Amino acid sequence: MLFGDPLITEGVACLGLDIVLTKEELMEQNIEHTQQEIRAECDALRDLLLEKNRKYGDSALSPARVFSRASPIEQILVRIDDKLSRIRTSGTEGPDEDTVQDLLGYLVLLRVARRRQAGAGAKP
After folding, report:
1. What is the tens place of the pLDDT at every residue in 32-90?
2. Residue 15 gets which letter from DSSP?
3. Separation between Cα atoms, residue 48 and residue 123, nearest integer Å
4. Which of 64, 75, 92, 94 has the most CB atoms lying inside 10 A of its own CB?
């Protein structure tokens, strides 16, 4: 097998091409492909977070505080706990939502909230 995939190898052989990738070239192609997939996943998560921020306002980082006086960080941690509990009891795939993507979103929001808190403490 030239490429590790029998269909690709057979396709190249049918064309009469004699293409052989070195192990390093194949690894580089795999790395580039993985990096493209990482970019796509990060872009999708960014787009989701920005869409929800436009739709719901800045509620995660600047909560209304009608019933709870907990800090934004504590409220995000509660949401993370809820998502982890849902994953533990129901798995990662639900019919109406992507729990893993939601969890990742809350983890990003937690980082933003912690940066804000650290920045607020550094100001005079």
Report:
1. 999 999 999 999 999 999 999 999 999 999 988 889 899 999 999 999 999 999 999 98
2. T
3. 31
4. 75
Instruction: Tell me which DSSP letter residue 4 carries.
Output: S
Nearest-angstrom CA–CA distance, 116 and 45: 20
Q: Residue 2: which residues within 8 A CB-CB, separation 6 or more?
A: 8, 9, 12, 19, 20, 21
Question: How many whole angstroms separate alpha carbon 112 and alpha carbon 70?
Answer: 17
